[in-house]
Each structure stands twice: as C-alpha cells, then as structure tokens.
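ligand=phosphoric acid mono(formamide)ester
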Amino acid sequence: MQLSTKHLLGIKDISPADISLILSTAAQFKEVLQRPIKKVPSLRDVTIVNLFYENSTRTRMSFELAEKRLSADTINFAISSSSASKGETLLDTVNNILSMKVDMVVMRHYASGAPHFLSRHIPAAIINAGDGINEHPTQALLDAFSIQEKLGSLPGKKVVLIGDIMHSRVALSNIHLLKKMGAEVMVAGPPTLIPKYIGEAFQVKVEYDLKKALAWCDVANVLRIQLERQNQVLFSSLREYNLAYGVSKKLLDSLGKDIVIMHPGPINRGVEIDSDVADGSQSIILHQVENGVAVRMAVLYLLAGHALD
Ligand code: CP
C-alpha cells in the first residue's frame, strides 16, 4: 500500500487513511526493532539528505537511525557548518545537494512554510521535521503511536496539550492528528500562551485551570515553554509559571486517577514539568523517543515508493 501523498509536509494535509497506514506500518517496524538484527534492506538504493537549519537532538538522531535501519544512503547538513552562513539561498543549497542524486529530503527549518516552498520547486520527496511555529508531523505521529500503544486506541481518548500552545508546532500537528483520528482534544495554559481563536477554529476545548484540565484528561502532553520564539513578555517569571502551570507530583496525586504523561522534549525541568513527574511511573516520555524511530522508518518507507516512481 502507498500513501496518497508524495510529501509529508504537515498533518493538516493528510487523510485519516494515510495516518492509519503510517501507524500500522510503524507497528511492523517496531517489531523489527526488537529483533537482534534490526536492519532491513528496504531503502537500499535510496539516498536521503537530512537538512537541519535549526538545532535538534531527538528528531535528527531518530531520522538518521531510521534511515540506517532501512539501509538508505544518507548525508547530513547542519547550517552551522555549511555555506548557508555565506549567504547561499535555501533553493540553491538544495539544488546543489539534489544534483548529487538525492531522492528524499528531511528538513527542519526555523521558517514556517519552508518545506512547502521547497516541495513546489524540487522533484525530491520532502519530509517536514519541524518548520517554525507551523507543524512537526512526525512528532504528532509518534505521539499518536505512543498513546495507541499505551491505551489501545485513539477514538474517544481525552488528550490535553498543556503550556505554550501559541508557539508550538507540536501542538498544531497533534491537534490536527488527534481530531482526524477521533480523539477529544483540550488545550490548557495561561491565556497569553493560547491563541484566542483556537477553540472555535479547531473545535478543541480551552481550559485555563491546570487542575481542571488534568482532571478531565486520559493523557497530558506537556509542552516546552519556547522562550526563543517569544518576542514579548507573556508571563511574569518561570518560577510563577511553574507554580500555576507546572505539572507536579503533588498535583497528579491529588487527582485520584492515573493519567499518561507525555512531553516531546527537550524538557525544561522544574518549569513546565517537575523531575519526579517526567521520570515517574506515569511518564511515557522515553517510549515516545523509542517509538520515533519506528514511526520515521514507516514514513520514509511509505514515501520512498513515490520518490522512486
Ligand atoms: N521533539 C523534538 O523535536 O526534539 P528535538 O528538537 O530535539 O528534535
């Protein structure tokens, strides 16, 4: 089976059938990753460039590992060590790389829409590994895979995204995906970090009281405060943010029920989440990272079918 799309630019643009196909293919690759020999020859003649214009730990390593597990040939580009710092345009950089016969491009960029721009100008398959404050589709896919693995399914599950919704591409991709797959979605946090239009535009619940949000949900996906994307003061201090919106063990214990705790990383310990919650028994944060490899293998494998057509 193939995806109905040539690129993975965002969850907004793909169908529930495509999402289901990626998640079921990821389950097969997760099984491969449990074997003593974790490598399969599926992408043996495929060349992939990892084009990172913004820092990354999890996404970049996860894509690199997924590509190696699929036996693809890979090249890595980081802006800090490239000629982009000498003024070369994105399109020139990519066209130079493509002249070396590259089939697929995995791209993270600080500008929203950069992978969409690229997809209109080059023939290679593009996978968005996070663009500005727009989308982070493979993060949403691995989050969904992890929820499904923990709770059995997505339809009807109550998921709250907590914190800096305004600047979070993870939030937007999660909202699109969870709504398409029949989950109930809430966003929670301070009013200054939640866009006013979001409830009506995306048909999600909005809650400014953290305890009420946690009491409602099955799953809490706690988001990082993105100080690097904020150009104005949106809350008084990190200490006060932690007091009002930090997820603490005391708060979880007061709920009288177990909820699944997630975080896309990197974590600001002691700000949006306390260490004893991030490392506690309800947390599946490291399972999310583990599942990222299988999910990215699935995306690469399914899109390679189109890239080689
Ligand atoms: N979750 C995530 O995108 O982490 P990185 O920025 O480390 O890739």
